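Example record for the data management plan.
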Amino acid sequence: MPGKDPNGCIVTSVIGILGLGKIESFDLGGIFIATVGSIVLLTIYRLVMKKRS
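Corresponding structural encoding:
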């Protein structure tokens, strides 16, 4: 996700991994859903961090 991260690449990576969820097999639909989920989580995280500062 482009832009400046409030807490750097480690927190961003952890949030991205949380967006993956349960993976049972490799398919493009699952990768798409995981990517969208990660972007949603990162957006929420950035909004929360922006309100704190």
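Summary line stored alongside the record: The chain has two helices and no strands.
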